[in-house]
Amino acid sequence: MGDYYDAPSWFQGSAWKILEAKGDYSIFLKGAELAGYKPIMNGNSILTIMAPDDKAFSEYLSKHGYSDISEVNTSELQKLIGFHLLYYSYNKDKLVNFRPEGDLATDEEKEKNAGMYYKFRTRSSNTPTVEIEASTGRRRTVYHLDRFIPVFSSRFFQTKTLDAASNYNYFYPNTIWKGDEGFNVSNAAVNEYGILADNGYIYTVDQVLEPLETIYTKMKTNGNYSIFSNLYDQNTSYVYDATLSKDYGTSLGADSLFIHTHGSDLPAIAVEWYSTKYADVADNASKAYSVFAPSDDAMNKFFDDYWEQGGYESLSDVDALAMKYLLKQFVYPDGIVFPEEIKSGKVKNVYDMNFNFDPDKVTDKSMCVNGVFYGLNTIDTPLLFGSVVGPAFRNKNNNYYLYMLAGAGLIVSYSSQDTKYVLLMPSNEIIQSEGISLRTYADGSRLQQETEDGLADVSTSVMRDVVNLHTVTGVQSLKETGTQILATQMGFNYLFVKDGNITTSAAYTQLLEPDNNVNPFVSFSEIKNGNASWNNGKTYSYGGDKLFKAEDGDGLKHRLAVCNDSRYVYYQFAKLLQKSGMVTSNDAILDLIGTSHFISFIPTNQAISDAISAGKIPGMNSSGTVTSASQLRQYLLNYIIRDKENAIVAYPYPGSDMKSATYISANGNPLIYTDNGSSITININGESANVVSTYNYFPFAFNDGCFQLINTVL
What we know:
The model is unreliable at 1-5 (pLDDT under 50). The protein has 4 domains: 15-124 and 145-211, FAS1 domain (Roll); 237-376, no CATH class; 395-542, FAS1 domain, CATH 2.30.180.10; 556-710, FAS1 domain (Roll), CATH 2.30.180.10. The chain has 25 helices and 33 strands. Helix 2 (26-34) crosses helix 5 (74-82), helix 18 packs across helix 20 (460-469) and helix 23 (571-579) packs across helix 25. The N and C termini lie far apart (82 Å). The chain has a 7-stranded mixed β-sheet. A hairpin with a 2-residue loop joins strand 18 and strand 19. By secondary structure, the protein is α+β, with helices and mostly antiparallel strands.
């Protein structure tokens, strides 16, 4: 940390002697001597002292039921007096605007985050505790680091652009804010600044400094928050610390010392320091946490209003991942939060959503050694839980999809309040139809699927594809009557709605199969949030027993290349491709090799047959004999547009993102595409054709291309 003591050119004596000479600090000095701190105050160490006078100490002792400081047991006295003794020596300027860069900080550097390095290490700590690790049943000796004390300077509040007095008094209502010309230190105002001793600085304060506890201790010892606290504790982990074990293990009679944390997903609110590394001066001086803990009454009411409606029987029955997301709604990992910041909407949780509570209605609030604690008597449904992904959090029969959303990393994206969504949500049974199961292990639950190599986690890419296929933007709802084509968040995959039923573009291609007797459409129904929709759109369940999936077959290129069955709607066009020499021996189409996506407007079988008979197909006579393969090839390419020449962002249908425009056919000729709103027309070489309405303008969409049938050749 460096030496922050400004060595004086002359000496006034040790801090002990100066306070002794003042005459009205006898109780503080007696306590320091009983606690064993007299040697360091008398010159054996460089330090900064916050000294309460006898009047302040007498009031403190009376408040806590003591008639004399000698009645306080040694460990408590060490904790109390140690909280007044700061490591290193700080003059007023350094306490107002401490710089982790040290004395070499430039004027420009001093203005950066001025006053925000507000915590200073003291000699106060709790004795180690022995705790039982739930997952192993082992006893762990937990080391408690020295307390940091908050020094709230005028620069601190200026940098935060907050009113100093009202925000300070929110946490310290019994202390007068006197820090406009300097600072208040935790719960005390400063009477006299920077008395210079030969081993540091003394600041006299108007109250005894109450040792701050961790957020965890504050919450754990308040019986009103036992549910939230116990749920938080389900994520407890004990981390072995080699440095602490080496430095202090022997003296404490322990081979191993541990730090009590709460895993990687939740802030470590049981640890006194933000970072357990001594060298992390800047982080430990500036960073902290804020926890907004719902009371037991608030948690129980939330269960009644939310989870019980989704089929859960008790809080202990609620899915662990859903509960972890709820816990994270109420923690802020990036610093201490003041009431003015809550009211102004400046502070957002880890899901980029505002904390939505009134700090004026909070009765339990505390400044803590590692942040601040707010106790909430009521909670509104968090925005995340009230969004279109809400049913995955609420409904027991949709919790598999919660793991899909989380695994895909899309929960926050699809809970955004800036966009309206329509989201399909499959039931657990539908997801299980794919051989996917939710399995629980010591480190949590995850979706898994049987593979050739045995059981394996469902990949992130698979989960992302499923979620994106089930999500639509830019529409208000699914139509109960008529038809509707919806572009999903998975490119070139669509949802088709017809008369209150729904299917995917991938499933719809089954209708092309001559022997198909399967109706690809299934029913759907809205999953409501009580009697209303969700805060950013609508969510629907769907029937059937299969999960909606994207197109994963051989693609349209292959279908056209190998088609030899006259019952296919594209048979005649496929035969022309073959006769033109465009189809290779390995079933590729020459002019589509290297094309990622293409669109073809294919004349119906009848239209092509009639055109052949009439001799209207270039390069072919009326008997169907090819007279010029190259001429036929160039003609057929009129009906194809490729992403080589065009920006293909969507497949064609009325209302598609494929807009009316002139596109370049695969042979270089212009193809004029017109979306008429309820129909589609194309024009090639001055002749027009209409997309047939037989299939409700639903495009036959594949992973490499799409076709629409037109009523005539051009």
